[in-house]
């Protein structure tokens, strides 16, 4: 896929969707953008791999945060979820080489899909508590919201 198409999907669609939803949603309007642990907000950094993509996703993060600041008086709240590895039914913890790679970026425990969903719903219902929401934050919020029977197995 051409990088301009990737940018349109990641940046343009996100910002157009956020703008549309915020204009019509009840207030407060809370939006969570799901990103990655390797995405970089600092546009001046030189990155060793996938730099164009990682910086573009960082621009998306910066844009949604700027949007929220510009619309704070209109009840718009945003955050970015950066879950690291995601476990789900039929997919156990991520592989050792992938875990090792993620550890270089910090904030990388695996998050169960149920915890991720519960944490994001909790933040939308009860208010955004921080930005970004790293894996350990998502696990803590998700576990607090769930009972053991709530997990997808």
Summary of the model, kept short:
With 153 residues, the protein is α/β, with parallel strands linked by helices. The chain has 5 helices and 5 strands, in the order αβαββαβαβα.
* Strand-residue proportion: 5-15%
- Mean residue pLDDT: 92
User: What order do the helices and strands follow?
Assistant: HEHEEHEHEH
Envelope shape:
globular
Structural class: alpha/beta
The Rg value, from CA coordinates, equals 16 Å
State the total count of DSSP E strands. Answer: 5
In which range does the helix fraction lie? Answer: 40-55%
How would you characterize this protein structure?
The chain is of the alpha/beta class. The chain contains five helices and five strands. The strands form two sheets. Strands 1-2-5 form a three-stranded parallel β-sheet, with helices on both faces. α3 links the parallel β3 and β4. The longest helix has 22 residues. It is globular and about 40 Å long. The N and C termini lie far apart (34 Å).
Write the topology of this structure.
Layout: H1 3-24, E1 29-34, H2 51-70, E2 76-82, E3 86-87, H3 96-103, E4 111-112, H4 113-126, E5 133-134, H5 135-145
Parallel strand pairs: 1-2, 2-5, 3-4
Helix pairs in contact: 1-2, 4-5
């Amino acid at each position: 896929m051409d990088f301009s198409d990737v940018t349109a999907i990641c940046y343009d669609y996100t910002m157009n969707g956020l703008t549309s939803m915020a204009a019509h949603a009840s207030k407060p309007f809370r939006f969570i953008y799901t990103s990655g642990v390797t995405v970089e907000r600092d546009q001046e950094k030189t990155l060793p791999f996938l730099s164009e993509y990682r910086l573009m996703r960082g621009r998306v993060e910066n844009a949604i945060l700027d949007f929220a600041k510009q619309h704070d008086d209109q009840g718009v709240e945003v955050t970015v979820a950066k879950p690291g590895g995601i476990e789900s039914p039929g997919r156990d913890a991520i592989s050792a080489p992938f875990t090792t790679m993620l550890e270089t970026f910090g904030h990388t425990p695996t998050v169960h899909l149920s915890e991720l969903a519960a944490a994001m719903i909790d933040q939308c219902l009860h208010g955004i508590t921080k930005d970004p929401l790293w894996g350990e934050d998502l696990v803590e919020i998700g576990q607090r919201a769930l009972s053991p029977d709530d997990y997808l197995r």
